[in-house]
């Protein structure tokens, strides 16, 4: 069953590019989370999306949010991706696609892992989601707009 706006975001624990375990609950009560699922490290669309989040990272931090990317790539692949593009945020390795399945992230064209961004508030509630394989920058823009809305509500 796919996670929807208004649902509590399911907790999970995955390994980051630095080898540490990261759980969604680590942020609850402290920060909003921009959780984005993407198909593959170092591909044109995924690089454009990651660099968009990188270029706006300080704005996300100023809004009280942490950016977390998830793909099925290994931690070693994430390390190389982070280094190559100077990505300042957390990338998590979901090698068995368990978290992708937990969130109900759909496949694109039935074969490619989908690209979906969830904006989760400090209480762990999904406040917005955006699903698009091709509108890379819009994932960043939608997240920023939602965070501004959360801040004033």
Description of the molecule:
By secondary structure, this protein is an alpha/beta fold. It has one domain (26-152): 3-Layer(aba) Sandwich (Glutaredoxin). It contains 5 helices and 7 strands; from the N terminus they run E-E-E-H-H-E-H-E-H-E-E-H. The protein has helices spanning 44-55, 57-62, 75-85, 98-103, 136-152, and strands at 13-16, 21-23, 32-37, 65-71, 90-93, 116-120, 126-131. Strands 2-1-5-4-3-6-7 form a 7-stranded mixed sheet. Strand 4, helix 3 (75-85) and strand 5 (90-93) form a beta-alpha-beta unit. Helix 1 (44-55) packs parallel to helix 5 (136-152). The protein is globular. The chain starts with 12 loop residues before the first strand and ends with a helix. The mean pLDDT is 94.
Largest sheet: 7 strands, mixed
How many alpha or pi helices? Answer: 5
CATH class: Alpha Beta
Strand residue content: 15-25%
- Overall shape: it is globular
Order of the strands making up the biggest sheet? 2-1-5-4-3-6-7
Question: How many independent structural domains?
Answer: 1
Architecture, according to CATH? 3-Layer(aba) Sandwich
| DSSP helix fraction | 25-40%
For the termini, the CA-CA separation is 28 Å
Task: State the CATH topology.
Answer: Glutaredoxin
Q: For this structure, what is the CATH homologous superfamily?
A: Glutaredoxin
Low-confidence stretches: none
Query: pLDDT average, as an integer?
Result: 94
**How many strands?**
7
Using the CA coordinates, give the radius of gyration: 14 Å
H/E series: EEEHHEHEHEEH
Class per helix and strand makeup: alpha/beta
